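[agent] plan:
  1. take the single chain provided in the ticket
  2. run structure prediction with default settings
  3. attach structure tokens to the ticket
  4. add a short note for the reviewer (M.T.)
[agent] executing step 1
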Amino acid sequence: MKDCPNIVMFTTDHQRYDCLGINGNPVIQTPTLDRLASEGVNFARMYGQNPVCMPSRASIFTGRYVSNHGVRINGIPLPHSEITLPAALGAAGYHTGQLGKVHFTPHSGRDHEAPHHHYGFDTLVLSDEPGCYPDAYVKWVESRDPAMREKIRVPMPGTRKAFEHWTLEAPEEFSHAAWVATQTIEYIREHKDEPFFAHAGFYNPHPPLNPPKHYVDMYPIEDMPLPMRREGELDDKPRHFQGAYKRFASTTDAQWQEHKAYFYAMVSQVDAQVKRVVACLEELELLDRTLILLMSDHGDMLGDHWHTGKGPTNYDGIIHLPCFMRLPGALPAGKVVEDLVETVDIMPTLLDIAGAPCPERVKGESLMPLIRGERDGWRGEVLVEHKAPDGLSVKTLRTDDYKYTRVHTGEELLVDLRDDPDEFVNRAADPACAGALQEMRERLLACMMRIEDDLERTSVY
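[agent] step 2 finished; step 3 output follows
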């Protein structure tokens, strides 16, 4: 095990692909993350399996699609029968640590002071929300300065407003992002002499947005890009797209810009906290023996197409994710992978690099062949699935040329990405696209059959 790389996996929440400078954003300031990405492999087209937190995270940490693990929407616990990435690494000899947000079980109604199912983590320092509950984060704040408890509090989920933001009243060291970095640093120092896997789960830039003021000052509101939207663009979309316009049509450009400034500030705060962890690895002479991965669970619309937040519209703003890996000697510096890849590929890739066996039920594939330039046989498609308690079921298949969405009602959405990369026009009813529509229908069906789990044989007929 002495030659196995350590792994530090950073995850963010709501961070879009374009919320990194290296991914083409000229406004956002992410120097640490940009440097790490440039020193490793940057995945230009990484896509999530679901547009909200819990299902997406379940796919990341099991290598399995939503139809496989069954976490179809927030509020469904990850079944204990699923083999997780930390469990597989632990079986291979790694010590595994969870620091911050992981969100495998619902946080609403949970006893945050009771033991939590570990899902393969040897160390579990858990906080899925930044100040709502009496969890590890709040207990840590109270132990250091009880007066800070009210200064870091955020509203409970379900009571928050769409554009709620403010600057953090407490010193930055008491912020949730800084706490995640501090816990990760402490974990690394404690386990530096053995192979370790540390998952540092940042809540940023998930709303409500409450960054320290000096990060907000980095982003003059008038300099923020305006959302990408057109009048009437939702008229030809499935019905569940429609409510956004009624809700946000009166939102001013200045409101969207201010919201984006606070959002970018939350991303820049992550950058600064990742820098602290990297400095610790450098100090311990572990940086070049540690695989560093950063990715998000899903994105945020930020006003594009009249939407904000997340949900099963499955625009690229929600499902296209930042993702890079750095490990000198094992991964080439400056490599950009342009192929369509999915979050189910993360677990088998990390296990491949670690030299650990991959569980048979994993549906994703190691990305190492793509990194080496071996593209033959790659699937070339992305599957996104969502099923809500109200019956709304949405499946999306994205290829290089088209994005096809099918709703349980029979409504269809077809976007020709070759001439409409920003996803404004539904071509499902266009006779000129009838052939493409039928091809995508068949391809979605074939994909659903491909990912099915094999059933255990209980009898012979």
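[agent] step 4 note for reviewer: The longest strand covers residues 6-12.
[agent] ticket updated
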